Amino acid sequence: ESLPTITVLNHGFGGQYFHWSNKYNVGGGLKFAYNSHSIVEKLYQHLNGNLTIYVAKANPDLIIDDETNPIESYKYNGYKLYKVSHFDYVSNANNEVEVDYLDDVSKHILILFNSDDKTRSSTHAIAYEEFHNVLDDISYQYKLLTGVLPRYNLIGHSRGGIINLMYATEHIYNVHSLYSLGTPYNGAVLGNIGPIMEAFGYYITDS
Questions:
Q1: What angle do CA 47, 37, 153 make, to 5 degrees?
Q2: DSSP state of 63
Q3: Whole-prediction pTM
Q4: Cα–Cα distance between 47 and 176 in angstroms, integer?
């Protein structure tokens, strides 16, 4: 069995990619900032620096482009890709450089996925479509550059773990491993908090 070549971090509902590596004294906690105890840094150390960091930000307003030209002409479908060097990650928080395609497949790749889905859909359909689109696109690029499909480590927090599982069930040969943190596979007691609040005399309104 081939070893995984890409690790993907998938945040939970209401989260964002920078929550995987965060210091609240940097940009009020709203930036991708170096943290020696974060999973990002632990992966970097575990791989002895043999890691390339990308951020994939879903954007459903981007035009779908079925471009089939060589990788140098590639344009993304529904998301933008950014690269963060480890030097910049340590010394200059949030210094992300937009790139047109994967430009370094010589190292293990870490992708921090950022969903644009703000809905509370119980089916997770929108978030899954974003995630599915990004990983299929990344797989296509990786195949163009290396001749083989990548194998994924998928790490998800909360809803991210559910989205990862949905992807794995449809791509069983692409996924090497799944790790979940606080994922409510059996549902969440507070998933629909409205009836609970109403029982105490409080009502949720749109105002």
A1: 45
A2: P
A3: 0.82
A4: 17
pLDDT in tens, 115-169: 988 765 566 888 898 999 899 989 999 999 999 999 999 999 999 999 999 999 9
Query: Which pLDDT band holds residue 182 (cuts at 50, 70, 90)?
Result: confident
User: 66: which 2 tokens?
Assistant: 């079925």
Per-residue confidence (pLDDT) for residue 179, from 0 to 100: 94
Separation of alpha carbons 77 and 97, rounded Å: 18
**Of 96, 102, 159, 104, the residue nearest 134 (C-alpha):** 102
What are residue 53's DSSP bridge partners?
Answer: 84, 110
Q: Could you give the CA distance from residue 57 to residue 80 in angstroms, rounded to a whole number?
A: 5
Residue spans of alpha helices (H) in the chain: 39-46, 86-91, 125-146, 159-170, 194-199
Decide: 197 and 204 in contact? Cβ < 8 Å. yes
**87-123 pLDDT per residue, tens:** 877 776 667 888 988 999 999 999 999 998 876 556 6
Amino acid 206: pLDDT: 44
Taking residue 150's Cβ as centre, other Cβ atoms within 10 Å add up to 22
User: Is pLDDT above 50 for 27?
Assistant: yes
Q: Classify each residue of 175-205 as buried b or exposed e, where b means 16 or more C-beta atoms within 10 Å of its C-beta.
A: bbebebeebeeeeeeeeeeeeeeeeeeeeee
Number of H helices, E strands in the chain: 5, 7
